[in-house]
């Protein structure tokens, strides 16, 4: 089908992980309290921002990864000739138009929630374009740039209740550190890993888990609900990374990256469960099999 190469450009499995960010932010914002009220009107009004913000992140993330391939077209013709653009399945112009349309659609969807949501969406789009264009070529700033995209995406979810952004802005640092670690690991998926980068990623993963545990000091956060998800999170991220560290082979690096990306859903579920209870955490976790199933058909890197 002619549509498949365009879907490959958008990395559908990765988009599912971005939706998990929104659901986490939504839980942290307190918007879920609408559903605890007996009023059906309040329930519907509480769900509407979530709907628009999910649409927004689909557009923003999809557009961002499409432009990644647009900027990498020349390099991919050598290193990854099977990708849609270098293989000739999608023209460079068509890919750029798709990426631009997705980013604009994401911003417009966020605008349906609030001006603040739209502003955060613009920041996500600009941050993604900066990474695609220049950021990824910097060893230090590149991972931080990519992590910032995901941190802002989490805050986009928090903006379901605009006032909550000021209260929970620091939550953005958790995905910033985590995605920075994955980005460091991914640098070796073509030619093999850098040992120091892989060791640094282990430390950053540990920092993420420590930060989530520290959320227990918040009156809104119940750590007991979070712990089972954190155990699963640790089980998913550390074994592939240790294997990659021992062998430093491109295939093992790619598996570690893939595990890290998919486990982002579990990380989000662990924090969401702390803010909104374990049943809500399970709802977020249900995105994991969706992402895994999608990853069988579409690459995540």
From TrEMBL:
Molecular functions (GO terms): transferase activity, transferring alkyl or aryl (other than methyl) groups
The record ties this protein, via PANTHER family, to: CHLOROPHYLL SYNTHASE (PTHR42723), CHLOROPHYLL SYNTHASE, CHLOROPLASTIC (PTHR42723:SF1)
Query: Which is one Pfam family of this protein?
Result: UbiA
State the annotated membrane topology for this chain: Multi-pass membrane protein
Q: Which GO terms describe its cellular component?
A: membrane
Protein's UniProt name: Polyprenyltransferase
Where in the cell does this protein reside? Membrane
Sorted alphabetically, which InterPro entries does this protein's record hold? Prenyltransferase_related, UbiA_prenyltransferase, UbiA_sf
Ordered alphabetically, the record's keywords are: Cell membrane, Membrane, Transferase, Transmembrane, Transmembrane helix
- Keyword ATP-binding on entry: no
Name the residues that span the membrane. 12-35, 50-71, 92-110, 116-133, 167-185, 197-218, 224-245, 257-276, 282-300
Give the highest taxon in the source lineage.
Bacteria
């Amino acid at each position: 089908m002619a549509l498949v190469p365009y879907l490959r450009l958008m990395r559908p499995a990765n988009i599912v992980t971005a939706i998990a960010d929104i659901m986490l932010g939504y839980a942290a914002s307190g918007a879920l309290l609408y559903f605890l009220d007996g009023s059906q009107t309040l329930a519907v009004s509480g769900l509407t921002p979530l709907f628009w913000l999910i649409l927004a992140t689909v557009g923003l993330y999809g557009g961002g990864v499409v432009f990644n391939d647009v900027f990498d077209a020349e390099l991919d013709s050598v290193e990854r000739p099977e990708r849609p653009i270098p293989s000739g399945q999608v023209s460079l112009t068509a890919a750029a138009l798709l990426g631009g349309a997705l980013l604009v659609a994401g911003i417009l969807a966020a605008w349906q929630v609030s001006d603040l949501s739209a502003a955060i969406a613009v920041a996500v789009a600009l941050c993604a374009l900066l990474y695609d264009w220049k950021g990824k070529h910097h060893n230090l700033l590149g991972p931080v740039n990519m992590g910032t995209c995901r941190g802002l995406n989490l805050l986009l979810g928090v903006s379901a209740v605009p006032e909550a952004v000021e209260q929970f802005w620091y939550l953005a640092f958790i995905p910033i550190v985590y995605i920075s670690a994955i980005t460091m690991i991914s640098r070796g998926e073509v030619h093999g890993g850098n040992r120091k980068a892989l060791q640094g990623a282990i430390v950053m993963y540990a920092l993420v888990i420590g930060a989530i545990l520290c959320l227990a000091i918040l009156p809104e956060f119940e750590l007991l609900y979070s712990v089972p998800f954190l155990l699963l999170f640790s089980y998913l991220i550390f074994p592939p990374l240790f294997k990659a560290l021992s062998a430093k082979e491109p295939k093992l690096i790619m598996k570690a990256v893939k595990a890290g990306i998919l486990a982002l859903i579990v990380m989000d579920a662990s924090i969401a469960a702390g803010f909104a209870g374990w049943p809500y955490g399970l709802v977020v976790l249900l995105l994991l099999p969706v992402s895994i199933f999608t990853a069988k058909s579409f690459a995540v890197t």
